[in-house]
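Notebook B, p. 112. Complex prediction, attempt 2.
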Amino acid sequence: MNIQNTPNGIFLTNKTLSELDVFVRDFLNVLKAYADYVIVSGYVTILFGRARGTEDIDIIIDRIDRRTSERFFNDLIERNYWFLNSDDHNDLFGMLNENLAIRIAKSGEIIPNIELKFAKDYFDNFSLRNSLKVEIDGYGLNISPIELQIAYKVYLSGDKDIEDAIYLYEIFKERINRETLKNFLEMFEMDADSYGIEI
Amino acid sequence: MELRFSREQNRRDRLAFIKRYSEWVKSVPNEVWSQQQTALINSFLNSSKDFQLSRSEYLLMKDRSKTASLRHREHYTTRSSEAHG
């Protein structure tokens, strides 16, 4: 794997884009005009080569007001997206405001879909403010800091989550900030030694 | 008891595979791992086109899945805190 670290983030060149990558890229091209965002959870590991599929891509955004959300939702509909939760824009904005996720897919399809929510806690806001920029052959995207991703996946503790945590750790172990990882693991009250995640 | 052992062995095998796979990904150019990964993901997405659930049925399924994950998490936390006294 060729990963180049730069002061502005990570360069990942010559990556073949999957249909999932193209779906994410096209959605972000719309979203970027309306809100700051960060991609979290499973897609972060897939982006760096984990061999698994996913139905949904988790994206956290800064809070936007009702008028901005209306423009965003209309823009999505014009570009052939639909919402899985409701067709009523007031309902969708209400869900976001109640810290619930809304799901967005290409019109008439269910999978893949974007699970979009407002930042609601310290960890969401930390991810947004400290996102890692990844540049892939001409397009860029913001992902959650790797150290937080590893700790959060250990915290979730499902089989798939633990596998994601170990995979990210193995890929990035020469680059991660171990003090930051240690702090996040302590905040989640988790111990990752038994998985070979050394801090 | 035998079933539990098999599950634990399976988990260990999976984790060992993840480590071996990550070593392979790190050892080859991006073109190589990403082409193989793309074939897998595109195949997965292609299969999902046969998915016949409606929007509401899909959301219900996801809700149930999240509830089950939360139960698993609570179970794990309880066992973990018991194990650590």
